[in-house]
Structure formats: structure tokens, C-alpha cells
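$ run holo --ligand "magnesium ion" --emit C-alpha cells
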Amino acid sequence: MIKPDAVRAGDSGLILDQIIRSGFEIKALKLVQLSQKEAEAFYAVHCERPFYGSLVEFMTSGPVVAAILEKENAVEAYRTLIGSTNPENAAEGTIRKRFASSIQNNAVHGSDSDENAEIECSFFFNHFERV
Ligand code: ATP
Ligand code: MG
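-- output --
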């Protein structure tokens, strides 16, 4: 997912370009505005964390670009491509280093396991929106 900060900044095209050039194939893609309920559900695993309310507010502050990406070992490869959660700790050239402004407003989301990736794909896309 490209988060609202990066969509707002007009960086969606550059981010998708870096993803595609890094060997990922786009299997689904759309621009959507999350409701509060949807953002709360998407980040439910963080509901006890002190930043949860702020995170939900941020994630509903504007549209996001949702995508399904395919590559060998995609979860790990994509997390390497995006870099650390906090852009200050992200490696040079990673998407978060290039486009993120803070630990919360960190430009992109990535699934953390194959199992969660499948759940998150179904959260955003129905069967005829996926190729
Ligand atoms: P994501 O799940 O969005 O790909 P991540 O797996 O790198 O990011 P998580 O620990 O899952 O990081 O946190 C989810 C999101 O919550 C982060 O991407 C960030 O937007 C926000 N977040 C995480 N830690 C903090 C924090 N300490 N303060 C504010 N926001 C935070
Ligand atoms: Mg995460």
C-alpha cells in the first residue's frame, strides 16, 4: 500500500516505478479512501499500541494506493526494498529513505508474512480485480 502522505506528495508514480524496476509484477492495483472502520480493522493488530489512534487518523487522511505484488520470496524482498519502519534507520535508496518523513508517515506498507499478505489482498480486492 502507498500511504496517504506519499499519495498526497505525488510520489505514487515514482514508488510504483521503483517497485516494478525491482522485479515485482503488479497483479492488482487501485486508489481507495479507507473509512475509520476499515483502517481500524486493517491495523487491528496494533490496537493496544499508543500510536493506534493517530495511525488510524493518518491512514484515513486521504486516499491510499493498494496493490498486490508478485515476486519470488515477495514478502522479504519487498520489506528489503521499502526499508526500516523509521525512515531515519532505512537504508540508502530504499523507498522509505526516499519518500517517508517520519516513523508514522512512512510512505508505504508491506505485508509481514505470506499468510497476512493473503488476508490483506482479500481486504482490498475481489476475485475479478486480481489477475
Ligand atoms: P507496515 O505494517 O505499515 O508495513 P511496519 O511493518 O514496518 O509497517 P509496524 O510495526 O507494523 O511497522 O507498524 C505499522 C505502522 O504503524 C507503521 O508503518 C507506522 O506507520 C506506524 N507506527 C509504527 N510504530 C510507530 C510509532 N512508534 N509511532 C507512530 N507510528 C508508528
Ligand atoms: Mg507491519
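-- notes --
The two ends are 17 Å apart (CA to CA).
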